[in-house]
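Dear colleague,

Following up on Tuesday's group meeting, I ran the structure prediction for the two-component complex that the binding team flagged. I've pasted the input sequences exactly as they went in, so you can double-check that nothing got truncated or mislabelled along the way. The structure tokens for the whole assembly follow below. Feel free to forward this to whoever is handling the docking comparison.

Inputs:
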Amino acid sequence: MNHDKSVAVSFDGVSKSFGTKEVLNDVSFQAPAGEALCILGRSGTGKSVTLKLIISLLRPDAGKIWIEQDETTSLKEKDLSRVRRKMGFLFQDAALFDSLTLYENLVLPLIRLTNKTHEEIDFIADKVLRQVGLAADKKKMPSELSGGMRKRAGLARALVFEPKILLADEPSSGLDRITASEIDELLLRQKTERQTTLIVVTHDVHGARRVGDQFAVFDNGHLVAYGTAAEVEHSDNETARKLISEY
Amino acid sequence: MRAMKGISLKKVLEFVGKVSLFAFRIIADLFSPPFEAAQLGRQLAEVGSQSVPLIAASGFALGAVMTLHTRSTLVMFGAAAEIPTVQSLAFFVEIGPLVAGLLLAGRVGSGIGAVLANMRVTEQIDGIESLSLDSFKFLVVPRVLACVLAMPLLTLFMDFSGLLAGFVAESAASRISFHLYITRAFDSVDWSNFIPPTLKTAVFGFIIGTVSSYFGYSTNEGTRGVGKAATNSVVLSSLLIIVSDVILVKCIAFAFPGTAL
């Protein structure tokens, strides 16, 4: 498998099961650096598990995973921490720490993991909050934020380390079309302005086609199609054709 | 049937092993930096100061009821003067530590179990891990340490609330003065009746913190797991407090023979 610098994330024969349920079976793909890979598939086909494997919240049962030049399945916790800081993760429900304000959520990792001064940390927090349009809401608790604001807050937290790779799990789920489009726009800006690699799990084909350069389609734990939208549309796999062309 | 017994025994042993490893990890992480002082402060407020009203009210009610129950019997045997002594020894040696432990298991154990399980279900724990932060050190260790530190202090509140209620009940019946009540109450109390039973509650605190954090932190059953974690936390913490109390009472009696009533 090729691990050159043009590849941000690489899966090589990755399998993952939970008990007797096989979620991923011998999955291999490469996500090009600076591009957006959208992962499509029906519910329960291992899309979110794939994101958690990338950021090492889960370990694969078999296979290898590279983040840039680091093979993460054999790394110890200390080294994993270094690799994780290359990535930001936008969770489906934002996963903000609900006993902290939005501002505290953002600065928590900066205080713990960097030697930055309070002024520098404030500057970074204000910058990412401005990027996502929440500069006026930093003192709010997560419970005071609407669904769209929570997503943007989750995105802000994912951006505090200026990640090279941004993982997004269902960024538009539960949002109206306009708000979902705003989130897509924020993701696109990360790609175009900072050359961030995006890996987006979504059911929203409309948004995926807008954001994605490459598409991976999962079905029953297998990667059944991979390529550009046009390539997936002409894939041999019926599920892949349906998923990419729906709507 | 035999196979079923085999499976359940295996599961029980697996569970004991997992909880033990969890407890060892807490102890190891207690002594390794970074120390989560801010989190510890938050948890001390949550576990300690917010439990004071419940503990004090329960101690007061229990103290009054105990005096009302024991008074008639002691009066019958001409031992009314011993009421303060019985009250203080009962509270310091056993009632205060045990009841405070069980109350805290109910209030705090269920809270820790539910909060951590909810954080697991809503991916907040994954969120913390994804930021390269150690969620175990950040969430579990301060909670357990807060329980260990708060438990003996809450026991003191329980003891003295019970004693105060005993005085109120007794003075209503016999017009005993506060000075005389306190003198009699502490007359037969030795430090060994007071210090070891109070400090043993730190073990209860460790049990409550560890068990409830284990159930909350390791839940994997979605929203159903939140309720289950809360219930299991209370049930197992309470059971282990009672069992460990028997062992600790024996240990204290062995180390301080004067403690035994």
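Chain B touches chain A at residues 34, 42, 119, 122-124, 126-133 (CB under 8 Å).

Cheers,
M.
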